[in-house]
Amino acid sequence: QVQLVESGGGLVRAGGSLRLSCAASGRTFSMGWFRQGPGKEREFVAGISWSGGRTYYADSVKGRFTISRDNAKNTVYLQMNSLAPEDTAVYYCAATPGTVAAERSRYDYWGQGTQVTVSS
Q: How many angstroms separate the Cα of 30 from the Cα of each of 7, 40, 68?
């Protein structure tokens, strides 16, 4: 069983930065960050392989967000820069024993989410 706990969300002005953390218990897996904005479907944001050697990003966040992990701390991070109001969403981390994927169905474990609000 894997438990995931996100933290680091909050209110920030457009152009600002936030760093989200996801602390995991149990085994190390490939990890992903997803987000769900108001009235929208949950969408893939970024993913990282279990070793951290491969990373993947949605086009909408490429060049602004960076995913990383510290396996010694069992923690995955999402550094978000140049935030815009359209980044407002609940951000979820997720774990999969398989390879990183953009499909929600590939992930077996989910955190409770952390709210990110970007004001204009």
A: 19, 25, 11
